[in-house]
Amino acid sequence: MKNKSTQEKVVLELLTNLDTWVSGDYLAKKFQVSRETIWKAINNLKNKRDYPIVSRKKRGYMLHTAPYLEADLINIYSHKQLTDNLHVFKEVTSTQDLAKQFSSKHCITRPTVFVADKQTNGYGRRGRSFYSPPTTGLYLSIILPNQQQTVIQPGLLTTGIAVSITHVLEKFYPNKEFQFKWVNDIYLNYHKVGGIITESIFDLELGAASDFIVGVGINLTTVKFPKELAIKAQAIDNDNSVNRNQLIAEIIQAIINGFLDYTNPQLLAEYRKKSIVLGKVVSLNTGSEVIQGVAQKIEDNGGITIKRIDGTFQTFTSGEVIKTGFKYKGDHIG
């Protein structure tokens, strides 16, 4: 049996028993190798690859929940679906920028993922900065190839992926009830805990989008925010026991599945149900003007219909809700 294969099996076994002692004798018998082979594999994982494994006589080995991000661990949790298409960094300017640069230089045939522990220039829609400190958040971008050159509805894609991501978050944080602010923000208790940005790479020869790049930023345990964010952003929880490597692996798979299934009407129905803007007075920035009115409906294409101050209805497929729930000084909008 090759040493690398033994290492992978040992890691997988320790992962299934995180923070629990596993004896060397048990590992040797299970994988049908010598105790010395197990010992060498463990030492290589500890000394050359910095795995947080503790060894103790008569007890065996224990893998602590990794406080850092590790490509090998993410890959194991994803059942080796990513392998060479996963890139993990300690610090980058922006995973979204890395993904766009990579897409411009390569022909993408499989989902390709960029993950960072820290971003120095992370951003969301309209280039707005996304605070991305180390060890307390989740920051990733994934290139999704549009090999069939199908026409994608960007708004509906974003809503579908948002719901898919919260399904994973609800698994790891079962007591939390996540909400959505149109179109790309994930909320908890009316505070922002995450955001999604969806960008397309247009192929002029094909006349269609060749790739879509989905960026995700989530505040897991971030406590201290810049002053301008502190009143509207928060962390999901202060419990840092959640395994970020496993969480990232499952969110990556959720995004891939969400991309394939984003037109599923059940996803949009759930998005509508958990919307914090429907029925509320909102201010929507279209990029060229700010629209005020009452959010009436999330349309089947993911757009939003607003009843304006003058009583007319208007549907938007792009833009950003920047205020919710405020009151007009003038006429009441019902």
From TrEMBL:
Keyword Oxidoreductase: no
Pfam families: BPL_LplA_LipB, HTH_11
Reactions accelerated catalytically: biotin + L-lysyl-[protein] + ATP = N(6)-biotinyl-L-lysyl-[protein] + AMP + diphosphate + H(+)
Domain of life of the organism encoding this protein: Bacteria
Class in the EC hierarchy, top level: ligase
GO CC annotations on file: cytoplasm
Database matches in InterPro entries: aa-tRNA-synth_II/BPL/LPL (IPR045864), Bifunct_BirA (IPR030855), Biotin_CoA_COase_ligase (IPR004408), BPL_LPL_catalytic (IPR004143), HTH_11 (IPR013196), Transcriptional_repressor_C (IPR008988), WH-like_DNA-bd_sf (IPR036388), WH_DNA-bd_sf (IPR036390)
Domain (BPL/LPL catalytic) ranges: 68-267
Gene Ontology terms for molecular function: ATP binding; biotin--[biotin carboxyl-carrier protein] ligase activity; DNA binding; transferase activity
DNA-binding region: 24-43
Binding site for biotin: Q119, K192
E.C. number(s) listed in UniProt: 6.3.4.15
NCBIfam families assigned: birA_ligase (TIGR00121)
Name the record gives this protein: Bifunctional ligase/repressor BirA
Organism: Lentilactobacillus sunkii
